[in-house]
Design brief:
With 146 residues, the chain is α+β, with helices and mostly antiparallel strands. Helix content is 26%, strand content 29%. The protein has 5 helices and 6 strands.
Length: 146
Amino acid sequence: MDSKIPFNKNSQTKIPFSELVELIFQDCDYHFAIINSEVDEELIRIAKKKGIDLTGYKHVIETSGTRHSESRHGKESADRSPLSIEDYLLIPYIIKHRDSVKISNILYRKTIGNQYVYVEEIRVGRNKSLAFVSLYKRPIKKASQK
């Protein structure tokens, strides 16, 4: 299958995550969503303590969110630590192996050389999902830089 064909969230098309992430960096008007994965049991338990039931939710990445991150935190932005395609490919890892998580929007933090912050919004109703809002990274200051 040609990776240039956008993924439709209502379709059953399976395209590797890495190929879909590459579409973010192409100058196109497509709107597509990546159904990344089911919400894990630990996150469901954490959210329930806050009165939020995430049972049956999926993580979703849409081009609208990634375009926001690119304009605010990408290589063409004024951000001191601009995002690259490799950073977007870390999203599943950041979610699964988070160092911490905050529930309001869902805010994940993970240190992998830099500190990454990945934010999802909780969407209720028929399309229960945790949707991409933003991704950014900050360098970790070494003891000699403090």
